[in-house]
Amino acid sequence: MGKDRSVGEANMNELNIFSYIQKNSSFYNLIKSEQDIEAILNVPNSLRNFLKKLRSGRDKEKLQKQVLDDLEKLQQRLKTLNQYAIFEAPPKRTPALAKMLQEIITWLQEIQRKRGNAEGIAQEIERLLPDLEKEVKVLTDESCLEYVVKATKWEEDPSKPNSPLKRCREHLENLKKAYDQLGYRSKIFHMQLEERGLFGASQDFGKYLFEVGLEIDPYLNVPLLPASSIKGAVRKAYETLQPVKNWPPPEKVFGSSKSPEEGGTIGAIIFTDCYPVKAGRGNFVLYPDVLTPHYPEDLMGELDHEPKPISHLSIAPETCFGLVIAYKREELTDEILRQTLELAIDMGIGARTSAGYGRFKLTEVTE
């Protein structure tokens, strides 16, 4: 079901999580090689070392060749970074990073052509270095993660009527009204994460940046738990309870992928996406997390292993989510639905459930 446009969009001064992560991801996607990414992010330091060599008076002939070699590598990295900066710029606007890089490239070309005062050019480049460092630092995955986490500290504030969490609550209320008008019985279920949650880990979004994906609603500007994950978990719980409770067959409740000719049926239940409605621990919705990869299969011994922890985003513990569940048929009672949902969320939803992630407790049901 499409988003209700009566629900307020993200504020202009609110960080657009989707766009921000996409922008930084596109840099990593553009460069691809981890070695090249490291070299490009190290451009400010490389420039400093280059200027130091340029000013050195020792062994000028050898130094000149070394300087020119460094210069060629530097210019290539600067051009790649500039390509990203221009690619990511809004229409009819050149960002500060692109302007700065173009200026530095021009000055370096002047040195290469042996034109102008090398010391004067060095001073001009040095003047720009602090700003260049700030611009480049924003592209690192650590800075992006820190910035996004801080931006999702969503405290309830009456002076901010269009907060992300309020938008989500209004959206769920509108969805419930719509299903009620269509003749469904519908309820809003609120459930609270006991520990962290990881939803959409296999998604492409955010994977270039953090190596672990994340499910985000770009319109409401919040992380979400997709309806398909909820439905899968609830169906699994139902199939566990159904033989003991003598409930209707799962196909009758959740539907079947078979065609009508083969005896396939439409499900009796509808799940919406699950949205954060109340911030978690410390008033955060997103939390920084770390994944340490397992030993590779070809590893001979523990001493050969050099684990590289992967920083990524997860949902903050104690974050409260809400979703609408709508149903029509008589064979699905309120009690069956409640028991099944409670078991499903207790078993965990999303990635790393065996490590305690994605486990909820039901806190409220709105008729």
Give the helix/strand layout.
Layout: H1 17-31, H2 34-41, H3 43-55, H4 60-87, H5 96-112, H6 118-137, H7 141-151, H8 164-181, E1 185-193, H9 207-210, E2 216-217, E3 222-223, H10 227-245, H11 250-254, E4 269-271, E5 275-278, E6 286-291, E7 310-315, E8 320-327, H12 334-347, E9 360-366
Antiparallel strand pairs: 1-8, 1-9, 2-3, 4-8, 5-8, 6-7
Helix pairs in contact: 1-7, 3-4, 3-6, 4-5, 5-6, 10-12
Structural overview:
The protein is of the alpha+beta class and 367 residues long. It has helices at residues 17-31, 34-41, 43-55, 60-87, 96-112, 118-137, 141-151, 164-181, 207-210, 227-245, 250-254, 334-347, and strands at 185-193, 216-217, 222-223, 269-271, 275-278, 286-291, 310-315, 320-327, 360-366. Helices cover 47% and strands 13% of the residues. Helix 1 packs antiparallel against helix 7 and helix 3 (43-55) packs antiparallel against helix 4. The protein has 12 helices and 9 strands. It has 2 domains: 33-139; 157-366, no CATH class. The strands form 3 sheets. Strands 1, 4, 5, 8 and 9 form a 5-stranded antiparallel sheet that branches. A two-stranded antiparallel ribbon has the order 2-3.
Brief synopsis:
By secondary structure, the protein is of the alpha+beta class. 47% of the residues lie in helices and 13% in strands.
